[in-house]
Each structure stands twice: as structure tokens, then as C-alpha cells.
Amino acid sequence: MIKNHLVTIFIVMITTSFYAQQKQVGLGVVGLSHGHVGWILGREDFGDVALVGIVETDLELAKRLAKEYNFSMDLVFETIDEMVAAKNPEAIAAFGNIYEHLAVVEFCAPKGIHVMVEKPLAVSLDHAKKMEELARKHKIHLLTNYETSWYPSNVRAKEILTNGTIGELRKVIVRDGHRGPKNIGVNKEFLEWLTDPVLNGGGAIMDFGCYGANLLTWLHKGKKPNSVTAVTQQLQAENNPRVDDDATIILTYDESMAILQPSWNWPMGRKDMELYGTLGAVYADDRNQFRLRMAEGYDGFKEETFNLEERRSPFDDPFALFAAVILGELRLEPYDPYSLENNIISMEILDAAVQSAKKGETIYVK
């Protein structure tokens, strides 16, 4: 018993020593109005990221969240200049509206501060290109966080496509969305800019169309579509008077096509993807449930269902991944969903979709 007790103490000492020596990335948060900000405010301390400062001009919002997540108002600054001067963060996570992403990068890039924004990268292709130029000029990491990047089901789908199990890819269908921001009860600060065509760049077409654009660019290893055709509707004018709330986007590639269905009109929240090949299909039904269906005869098939385990760190958490990239412990694969090169192409797709919906015509991608 004494021996076992000593072994336990030894293990605890080694573990404690490891975390004490582990390099932490000092992270600043700019903006608190994004509904996803709880991911960092309520995150456990894993020893990889230290929240050093917050920028928020709405002090009532900051106080409300400070009470909810138990952080000190001493961390809160009214300007990014003040926070960076006082706290010297190595990285910034942007949790304000999408229009502000460009301003965050304009401030951070010349100072060598790495940036991660919530999806999508920007409100427009013009903003995205300016951000790309700054990131490359000043050699900072500029990542975009998509929840679907963490999904084991999406990773398995790409593995099966790559190894040829379902044959050559012919069609992709991606469906994302929920009942709408107001209907699901997002906070008022989030709702104000989500339904603003300037601050969000559009409605559902931007908010959820970006997921499909991002996944398609990843699946196609950076290959752009030949054409983009989009139709939008406003089915909840009382809730979303200034933006679309339903969209269908059709993309053509040389040997396949894709259909994206971003919507604020689904009866339930969803983020799912279907890949159809010449031999079979895969269904990433949600984060963990995955189905493989192989064709048999005319309309027969054999289907297997898998409940997948979560991915291993740092691929199960955006901040762990951000820290690993900054510290040089991880190098993203080409056109990874988080990567800048992926998200520039994703913005080209979204830009073409918005143009197509406005003009009522197909946009051919250069």
C-alpha cells in the first residue's frame, strides 16, 4: 500500500511538473458579443492557453458575462490598444461581429500578434484579401474557427473518400442551420449584428453557407468550383427584416457538384454532410454519428453505422489547436479547414453566392 501511495505521489509530481514547464500562450479576447465566446470564457485550464485580457466597450455585457463565467472585470479594457499595452498577448481571439475581423488583423498583424476569428473569415472577399495580405506580410498565423472542423464524422468521411472506398466523388450535400437566431434565443447583442447585412455580410447565406464552402474546399484540396449559383429567400421577415434567412447554393466542379443548404428555417439545429461516390455514399449525420452505405444492384445497399469517439487533442478544441500552431507543435495540412488558404477560397465561394443571389444568375469562378 505504501509503495502504491509513493507511485501515485510520483505520478502527480511528474504531471504537475509537466504542466508547470508547458509553454502557455497568452490570449486576448476582442469582443464579447459573439454567442460562441462562452467556449473560451468557460474553458477549463489545460495549461496551454492563459486568458490575459478582454476588450469590450459594452461594460454592461462585460459585467453580465463576468458574473456568469466568474472572471475579474480587471481583465476588461475598452480598447485593444490599452489591453495589448498592458497585457502583451501573443494571440487574439476575435469574438465581436464579423465586420470587425479586418480591424483586428490590421491592429495585430504589424505587432506580430496571431489571430483566430470565428467563422466566416470576413464579411466580404475584399476584407478577406486585405486580411490575407497583412497576415502574410507580417508572418502571423490567421486561423478561422469552424465547429465542424472538430467533427470526427467529417474527418472519417474525408478518409473514406480519399482511400477510394466509395469510388469517385459525384455529389456533396451539406445542410447547416437552425430555427433562426431570434427563435433559438440568442442574446440581444449577438442578434443585433447577426441580422445586420453590413456587420454579418448577409444572413443565413453567410452565417451557415460558410460551413459548406469551407468543407468543400477541404475535400477538394483547394480546388475552386467552376460555377456558383445561389437563391435566397426571406421566410421570417418579422425576425430578419434586413437579411436573407434561407439559401440554396449549387456549385459545379469538373467531375462533381455540390448543394449547400444554409438556413435559419430548419425545425431543429443541424450540421450534416453527405458524400456520394460511384460505389457508395457516406453520411456524417452529426458530430459523432457516421454511416457508410455501399451500393448493391439497382437500389440495394449494405449500410454500417458508427458512433465515433472524439478526436484527440489538440484536434478537439480550437484554442488547443491555435496554441499548438503558434508554438510550432503543429503544422496544419494544406487547405485544412482552419487554414488561411482554405478560407480565402471559402470567401470566394461565398462572395460568388451573394452575387449570384442578388443578380439572379450563375457566377463563374475565375
TrEMBL record:
InterPro entries in UniProt: Gfo/Idh/MocA-like_OxRdtase_N, Gfo/Idh/MocA_Oxidoreductases, GFO_IDH_MocA-like_dom, NAD(P)-bd_dom_sf
Lineage: superkingdom: Bacteria
Domain GFO/IDH/MocA-like oxidoreductase: 156-282
Segments forming domain Gfo/Idh/MocA-like oxidoreductase N-terminal: 28-143
Pfam families per record: GFO_IDH_MocA, GFO_IDH_MocA_C3
Protein name: Gfo/Idh/MocA family protein
Species for this entry: Maribacter chungangensis
